[in-house]
Amino acid sequence: MALTVWPVTDEFVAEIYDVDLSRPLPEEDLAALKAAFWKYAVLVFPDQNLTQEQHVAFARNFGEMDKTVLKAAVSDKILRVREDIADVSNLDDKNELWDENSRLRQLQLGNRLWHTDSSFKYVPALCSMLYALEIPPVGGQTEFADQRAAYDALAPEMQRRLEGLVAEHSLIHSRARMGYAEWSEEERKAVAPVPQAMLRTHPETGRRNLYIASHAGRVVGMDDAEGRALIDELLAHASQRQFVQTHRWRQHDLVIWDNRCCLHRGLPFDDLRFRRDMQRATVRDVANTCEQEGLPVPQVRAA
Fold this sequence. Notes:
By secondary structure, the chain is of the alpha+beta class. The protein is built from 10 helices and 15 strands. The chain has helices spanning 27-40, 52-59, 70-73, 103-108, 147-152, 156-162, 171-177, 185-190, 224-238, 289-292, and strands spanning 4-7, 14-17, 42-45, 85-87, 125-134, 142-146, 166-169, 194-197, 199-201, 208-210, 216-219, 244-247, 254-258, 262-266, 277-284. The strands form 4 sheets. Strands 1-2-3-13-5-15-4 form a 7-stranded mixed beta sheet, with helices on one face. The termini are far apart.
């Protein structure tokens, strides 16, 4: 049976049925899946049963794997899962609930801010695939915001203003929004700012979209206060309800989203009471966004 695509809205988010991601996909199914992905940007696959190896094998259909930033951002971190899977759970390396005051918890709470994965790396993420092994009984949903629709809704003068602008992205910027500043010198170097274009053209569809995130802290060539105000204005615009869909997780859901044209954030839950075991395979993009947009790659300042 061919896979079934069930749109949540006409252009954003779809559920996919009649496919088993634990097995290699026939070429025609993979082609249909990718076509749906380019169109809807977020795909939900219910009832998947995946090992870490199968999770990564499916992700490799979209490109080269990214590695978790946790070893660099929390230098004393012992990984609970393989390095090409990001552990976005509330569990420590002994598979127990994290401590209220752990550095890992303080860092991971930043995932509740609107962001796009790995924009703080010179080559950011193309797509992410988050797999739900355990979910809390309440809370912990994930929201997605369509940055194609957000761009279309900008005033023409704002669209023109953003052409050619570049922002500096860093984990240091986003975590500062949460009051987190516990970086060693080695960690600061590992998450130093990188340049990213503020507008992108989606290579498969040709659609123009915003590319911003809580990781963005400065706009190159702009006064710091003015640049921060612009970033905050765009984040507020891009996360308006008309652009947002909320996914309420079911155990064994796998959700894939296009980081090139989506923002996302995790919603709060009682992370000191309930387990939430979520594992994310992330695929790297092909190049830095400035390079893809044909923009000069600027030098950026230390955060």
